[in-house]
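To whoever picks this up:

The parser on our side crashed when reading a file containing two proteins. I've narrowed it down to the boundary between the first structure block and the second sequence. Both blocks are reproduced below exactly, byte for byte. First block:
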Amino acid sequence: MLMRIDETDRKILRELQRDAGQSLDEIARTVGSSKTPVWNRIRKMRDAGVIGAQTVILDAEALGFEATFFVLIRTSEHEASWQKRFLEALRARPEVQEAHRLAGDIDYILKVRVQNARAYDTFYQALISEVRVHEVTALLSMEEIKATTALPL
């Protein structure tokens, strides 16, 4: 069941996306409401699944993760058992920040964050030792121009 989102809900969601650590008073003041109605709306959106887990965004480079690779994978295997092993391997690897199954010539794209090229090679060797892939292309990001988790509300 989809929850109906009105403009006040959108304002609250924009504020939470901007900084989920701000107080209810700050959010209420920004959206032009009071604390209790804002809290009730947030609780309803959380219960409806509109709001998921709250987390913090870490500075990857400050923590030594200086390389981002986009990994394009083609496979000749399309059986359920292969896909299950592949998905388990991806989920077990913290280096994989995102994984998408694609339509078109490429079957999967991964966003892999590691310390450097040597760490990527270690990741790659471990992955191909667990699951068979037909072709892998790794693209090193030279510069992150834009990164956001915010939806365009």
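<<boundary where parser fails>>
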Amino acid sequence: MTEAKAIMTTSGTDTTVESVVRRVASAHRGERGALLPVLHAVQAELGYVPQAAIQVLADEFNLSRADVHGVVTFYHDFRSAPAGRTTVRVCRAEACQALGTDRLMTHLRESGHTLGETSADGSATVEQVFCLGNCALGPSVEVDGRLYGRVTPERLASLLNGTV
């Protein structure tokens, strides 16, 4: 395992991918459908689901590597690489599109952000989603789990810079 080396968890603890995954999996042992909660917990602790975690999870849950990899890649909430310091999710659903998401997307492109990628300086990861459930207040954006409505390009810039 190349990623089994020591990593820094989001709680600031030095540990290994394998030890984190085994500890989290053991807390869910015996539960039906435990893979999703374990993947969420691994990502919450490590910031992403490392490739090294796939085999460990397959072993822990008696699944194939393909089964675990399929779940990680199917659900857009899981990352296979660390995210930036700020995670921005822009709603691209019809209601938000009608209320100005295209202006937000143009602003993101012009400021050097690419959907689905982390900026070169590691400051932000920008993702698209297809409904944040805030349709009446579109265009909507979620920044580090906090929802914002009626977002303008100027407000988006402030959110990206952490000045809001």
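After patching the parser it read the second block fine. Residues 35-46 form the longest helix (12 residues). The beta strands are 6-8, 14-16, 86-91, 117-118, 124-129, 141-143, 146-148.
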